[in-house]
Amino acid sequence: MRLFSRVQSPRPRHSLSDHRGWQSCITSQISTVLYSRSVNSKEVASDISCRPFPRHLTGLHSLYTVPAMTSKKPSVASSPIAGKGVVIDRTADVLTFTLDNSSYGNEVTGAMFDAMLAELRKEASNLRARVLRIRARGNVFCTGRERAGRTPAAIRGESARLIKFKAAVRSSPLISIAEVQGNAFGFGLAIVCDFALVAEHASLGFPEMRPGLAPVAILSYLGEYTLPRFAFPLVLLGEPIDPHHAQRIGLISQVCPADRLSAEAEALVERILRLEPSAVGHCKSFFLNAQQNSFDQNCRLAVDALTKGSLALLERKK
Are residues 246 and 158 in the same domain? Predict the structure, then answer.
């Protein structure tokens, strides 16, 4: 039986002032949550989602919707590591990060970033898993990151840690899946994953501009996931969007009914695990590199990659 131990996240030293300036319902209610720290996660979710969204937008049927499959390979679970507001769990092929700071809207603290980054670095040096799942407990996926720094050195350190973590997720040899079960106003964490599955009722957004902070972290890579005409208004105006719109402009992979989110993620994991491991690694690596190279460079690199891949395939068939 798998037992999940839970360690309460330390009390953040400062409030999430980044969310001031949202519409009046959000401003008045969220500020109470952030300054009093006295409400539970259900109240946080209710406060954040008080703005209604039109549901007439429809996304294309997802390429990643697959029927549930049963793994042929039994999973052997390791003991979950809980603490600092995140639970880290590992089975034979899957590494899972579960944000467990729901009392504070799953704000990602420095300690949470450090714990997850350490695991990703272990995988980079000694690959054991094949899939990374990023999930959250409670009704809110994430409300951003902790901003405790008050000196240039501290603020620079926080910023560097954020960028390092997102770069590690994006470049990891593991295929990453974000499962966004609720509102996400720290949505960049999900975007850098290879797949982003979002519950249909969730609200998504980048609110940093409202208090007057240019969100350069998300701007550094948002243009690789959607067109500039879509990307710039999202961060400039800070207006939340619904998942169907996010899917239409290429920010997420799939919109799911809330009660199907976990099952859809499980099905996707099974589909990935049925693929040949080394081919999956080469596919992701080449795909990421190709986005940084010119067309001519990619053509030259493709010749070498196809040669090596074909030889490996012939070897496996012997």
Answer: yes
In a domain, 7, yes or no: no
C-alpha closest to that of 298 among 309, 285, 310, 315:
285
Question: Of 104-108, 143-147, 185-189, which range is least confident?
Answer: 185-189
User: Which pLDDT band, with edges at 50, 70 and 90, does 80 fall under?
Assistant: confident
Query: pLDDT value at position 18?
Result: 42
Q: What share of the chain is helix, strand, coil (3-state, %, to 5)?
A: 45, 15, 40
Residues 261 and 281 placed together within one structural domain of the fold: no
Please identify, among 258, 273, 288, the residue that sits at the C-terminal boundary of a domain: 273
* Residue ranges making up the domain that contains 299: 277-317
CATH number for the domain that contains residue 36: 3.90.226.10
Please indicate whether residue 282 or residue 84 has the higher confidence score (pLDDT). Answer: 282
In this structure, are 119 and 217 located in the same domain? yes
5 occurs within a structural domain = no
State both tokens at 109.
């603290």
* Position 33 confidence tier, pLDDT thresholds 50, 70, 90: very low
Q: For tokens 């899972």, what's the residue?
A: 96
Put residue 25 in one of left, alpha, beta given phi > 0 → left and psi -120 to 50 → alpha.
alpha
Q: Please report the pLDDT score of residue 157 as a whole number.
A: 96
Q: Which residues contact 141 (CB under 8 A, 6 or more apart)?
A: 99, 106, 180, 181, 182, 183, 184, 186, 190, 202
d(CA 208, CA 210): 6
Q: Are both 232 and 285 inside the same structural domain? A: no
Nearest to 290 by CA among 280, 302, 278: 302
pLDDT digits (tens, 9 = 90+) for 90-113: 998 999 999 999 999 999 999 999
